[in-house]
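Job type: complex structure
Entries:
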Amino acid sequence: MTDTQSGDNPLSKKRHGYGIQTPGTRGVPGTKRYAMAIDLRKCIGCMSCVVACKSEFGTPLGVWRTWVKVADKGVYPNTRRVFMPRLCNHCDYPICVRNCPTQATFRHKDGFVLQRYNRCIGCRTCVVACPYNARHLVPAKRTDKNLPHLVVDKCTFCIHRVKRGVLPACVQACVGGARIFGDLNDPASEVSKIVSKERVTVLKPELGTSPSVFYIGGDWEIMDEPHSYENRSNQLKEEFNDFKRNHEGDAFGDIVEGESTMYHVAKNMTDFIASIPHKASDVLSAFKRLFFE
Amino acid sequence: MQESVITYNAFHHVAWGTPISIYFWLVGASAGSFVISSFGWVFGIKRYKPLALTASAQAIILLMIVPVLLIWDLGKPVRFIYLMLPGYWHSTGPMAWGTVLIFSYPISMIIYTIFVLKNNQIWAKAFGIVAIVLALSTHWYTGVVMELNPGRYMNHTALAPILFLTGAFISGIGLLILILWVQNMFVEAKKRIDWSLIEEMAQYMMYGIVFDCFLLFLEFMQTLYGNRSEILSHELLMGVFRFPYLWLEIIMGLLIPLFILVSPLKKERYGVILASFLVAIGVYGMRVWWVMGGQYMQSFY
């Protein structure tokens, strides 16, 4: 496989890490690099992967470890609906690992980019650093109180399953067989063969992060970020605004389009101040939660 | 061809919001006013000595709010201590360095202020030099922490720290002028700060505004050159950030004060006060769009 095929840059030739980041293992003999290939021609947008992931990890409402973006293109009768499953790209050179101030996130030697919840302080630097929006802060309210909350979470490529010889939940649930998972450094693995034979692409190759998620048959209109006002559909804008209006956690600064920014700055600050525990019982429970949970 | 319509997507939160933009503004104003405080004791401009205490007190008070704001904004506030423990500290994380700066800067500033109070020129100068380096570094780091996000292309520019430092300088002076004006109302006549000194500070502020305008011009030149950058400027100017970017920063924070400070209005006391007020709040507009803009634009991605 050549660098051009994978979207890598010469940086991937470097065999060193940054800080606690282990060196990239792509093509290094005797090492593993787990990777996923997603055949978008086979994806039917059933969202099984999203549901499987949610039930595997009990991911709370409003945040996702994997999600599927859906877009309609063209004008009737020449139209097509395209799907784009998204997840952490488990980069060989992850920016999030470099930016974490407490070494909470790290790159595993087999290619997984993982999060250590007991180290995470919830500063969200990695969320801002991730070019793929693959990280999120777990909300405070969770059904199971024993699960981590108010720390950053992300896709783990289901390392707990992979290490036991089981496929990741999303791969196992995929009805169309669109997701293929395996060791990219093993020439006999299915993913290695597919990435070698097919025309694959990665997201934002120009950043040199060397992602481990490869797409086959991607459509530029859905792979590129909808960064302009014109390219954002009205329906999506409305859904986005509803989501922002209704979700909890305004203190982290969400803005609703079409409403005054000053209003939202004031509202966010009010929420932020209101979220400070002011009753003795609240302070005690917050203290208890922070130290003992 | 009709644009594609995204019919479903996961929405992403803007991770750093209002508390972070307020923090950037506070650190900036603190660093800016400390620069003025050091004029007399570090750089030997004697006429600035009377206002050194007010300026460093302002710098200390503003910086005292910062840890409270930052620590409360963490998901796990008690774990802020991890940022200072050797087993956790991560040298490649800009925020790890920022923590060192945020905690060492006020300490050196307090020691400097104590020596200023004791009228000890030698030690005040020695600690003043340390504090001024830390003051500039603390605010430089806020630019760096935004800059080192290659994925947020709007923030990923080497111009960021300089833009932040210039904003810090002008907002610090603006706030200091307002505080000195209020202080002059309540102290006896012989302790009042000479108005000519404040006018001189306003002059420095004007130079800062001109430099800030130059930096913004550089940014405009790049953003109006097409492609993704043009979409960025369109989004900023016409989108949800129109108020903080166009009105608050450019018009209220830079152009109106610049007009006041180059016109005969600068001789008027209230002209200077108005310009200082507008600059101080205008820089907050820059902090808002700079922090949230880059994240907001990719919240659909």
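Summary: Chain B touches chain A through 73 residues (CB under 8 Å). Chain B has a mean pLDDT of 89.
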